[in-house]
Amino acid sequence: MIAKFLKEYSKWYLLYASMTGLYLLTFFLYHLPITFFLTSFSFNLTLLFGISIWLFLGFRKKMKTLETFLSVEELADFTLPSEESYRDLILAIKSSQSQRLLDAKHQHQGLQDLIKMWSHQMKVPLSALSLMAQTDQLDKQEVRQQLLRLEKYLDTLLNYLKFSGNKDDFRFEICSSREIIMDLIKKYRVSFLAKNLSVNIEGDWQLKSDKKWLSFALSQVLDNAIKYSKDGGQIAVKMDEKGITILDTGMGILSEDLPRLFEEGFTGFNGHEHKKATGLGLYMTKQVLDRLALSIAIESQVEIGTQVFIGKQKV
């Protein structure tokens, strides 16, 4: 502690020693009695010793406070302008640190809730597959549909974790939205057949984007169109140089739910009513499209259908 004290106040002691040397030089040059200098030096040294003890006690108290303090209120004795600046800086750092800890806690809690929700969603297709296996009634089309659901839930979770960790692997190239849609329709053909849905595709949209992530975003929209369509319904995909529009003749979305569709974890009336939503699909879609510099807009009417438009963001 003494070494730290001397290090902090070394400049002042060096200044005192320099001034003492100058006074001694003055006495020597003017042939003044050295006794007067020694008397003055004794008084000054005694005063310096007393002041040093007082400064050291204050320095030790501050050092112990800094080593053990838990709240900024404990730094109330730091009254010098420079000390107040340090105190304000410590307060700002602690506030920022507390906010980061709170954010991390919320993120951890959100991840736990997500895992619970995801596990619950996975149980449904797994239970269906288990029941078919136990009863020896393995319907090929139904098995494919349940496996497709499992694949979608897993894909959504993995992409969510990747985005949450700010780990992305975008690779921009010229893409054909028609090719992507055709691949997705082939992927979801079992779901189309299960609900006897017809699909109509018009035009194409050539754009520079990341094919994998654009495909993921479009798959979420197309999956919702299939999920909430009525048996025997229709899905239309229209593309031009402005963007891509996906329309369905499903149950539609309540007007009060529309502004919150892209919130994380929001399922809305349809999700609660049919217990098919995780609240991540459209949230992830919006996150991905934002990174791709694309926009998404949704219009819907209950019992009439939903229209989703994806295009380039306006500059």
Automatic annotation (TrEMBL):
Topology term for the membrane:
Multi-pass membrane protein
Where does the protein end up?
Cell membrane
The protein's annotated catalytic reaction(s) are: ATP + protein L-histidine = ADP + protein N-phospho-L-histidine
Domain Histidine kinase: start-end pairs = 117-310
Top-level division of the source organism's lineage = Bacteria
Q: Name one GO cellular component term.
A: plasma membrane
**GO biological process per UniProt:** cellular response to phosphate starvation
Q: What is its main location?
A: membrane
Name the Enzyme Commission number(s) assigned to this protein: 2.7.13.3
Presence of keyword Membrane: yes
The entry's keywords: Cell membrane, Kinase, Membrane, Transferase, Transmembrane, Transmembrane helix, Two-component regulatory system
List residues traversing the bilayer: 12-30, 36-57
GO MF entries = phosphoprotein phosphatase activity; phosphorelay sensor kinase activity
**Which InterPro entries does the record match to this protein?**
BphY/WalK/GraS-like, HATPase_C_sf, HATPase_dom, His_kinase_dom, HisK_dim/P_dom
In the UniProt record, does the keyword Transmembrane helix occur? yes
Annotated Pfam families? HATPase_c
Q: Which PANTHER family match?
A: HISTIDINE KINASE, PHOSPHATE REGULON SENSOR PROTEIN PHOR
Q: What is this protein called?
A: histidine kinase
Lineage summary: Bacteria, Bacillati, Bacillota, Bacilli, Lactobacillales
Gene (UniProt): bceS
